[in-house]
Design brief:
With 273 residues, the chain is α+β, with helices and mostly antiparallel strands. It is built from 2 helices and 10 strands.
């Protein structure tokens, strides 16, 4: 009898332990649901926007953005950016960031595209000097000037600016949608105040030429001015201005006066009295 009770108790314990193990395994097998993050509502372009375009109430709309992927510099309220100008082209539905907009009160059009501390400087060009019309807004150029100097009888060409960004060609601040070249008479460059002074001075001394360069090439190698005589392989001749030699003044000598009787006699350098 006692043996039956032990067997029964052992069987009950096995059933209970098995049931607990089964329930625990089922609970652990249930995947933990990831905590959902609500979407964020960002101010975005309601339609395609061009550089220099002023944002209006109908130019901005709110778009949903995944909450687990926030965007730095975005805006939550369209009213915060209405009245500011766009610096770069934006596509429809693209969130508008702080870096895409001009500073408040910066103006509209070309003025709005000038970063703080920079200047827009216009230089005259022609079809040849403008790289046969292939200069477009966003291009990068070197600026060369050919001039005559009192240091040499030969005309020379020197590089006065390197890797300058083209802000506008003529009155066009955006590249042609079809990529067609355009011949223009004026090219506007984005320069620092010091570079603007160099550009204006260079344009007043001789003819200005633009050399197109790869936008990814930001090198600034040292350049030596090229003289006309150097094209034929001759060594550069530098004219040195000489200052006329000034002869020293004749030295002054002190004389000694000797009196013999009543007649004074002066030695060299002195004066008779």
């Amino acid at each position: 009898m006692k043996q039956r009770r032990m067997v029964f108790a052992l069987a009950c314990a096995l059933v209970i332990s098995g049931g607990c193990t089964y329930l625990l395994s089922r609970r652990l097998a249930v995947p933990v649901r990831a905590q959902s993050v609500p979407d964020l509502m960002y101010a975005a372009a309601a339609h395609s926007l061009q550089a220099g375009e002023l944002l209006k109430p109908d130019s901005v709309e709110l778009v949903a953005w995944p909450g687990n992927r926030p965007v730095s510099g975005a805006f939550f309220k369209p009213a915060e950016i209405v009245g500011r100008a766009v610096l770069y082209p934006l596509g429809k539905g693209e969130p508008i960031l702080e870096r895409d907009l001009s500073a408040s009160g910066a103006g509209v059009g070309l003025a709005a595209q000038i970063p703080s501390g920079m200047r827009a400087t216009a230089l005259r060009s022609d079809e040849v000097a403008g790289v046969a019309g292939f200069l477009t807004p966003g291009s990068h150029v070197d600026v060369l000037v050919t001039f005559k100097s009192s240091l040499s009888p030969d005309p020379s060409t020197a590089t006065v600016l390197q890797n300058a960004a083209v802000l506008a060609v003529g009155q066009r601040a955006q590249p042609d949608p079809e990529g067609k070249p355009t011949s223009v008479a004026v090219v506007t460059l984005l320069l620092t105040p010091e570079e603007a002074e160099r550009a204006v001075l260079a344009s007043s001394q001789g003819s200005v030429h633009f050399v197109l360069r790869n936008g990814a090439d930001d090198g600034r190698p040292e350049n030596t001015p090229m003289l006309l005589s150097m094209l034929a392989g001759a060594s550069p001749v530098v004219k040195v201005e000489r200052t006329p030699f000034a002869h020293p003044a004749a030295p002054k000598y002190e004389g000694i006066e000797t009196v013999l009787g009543t007649q004074p006699t002066a030695t060299p350098g002195g004066a008779a009295q």
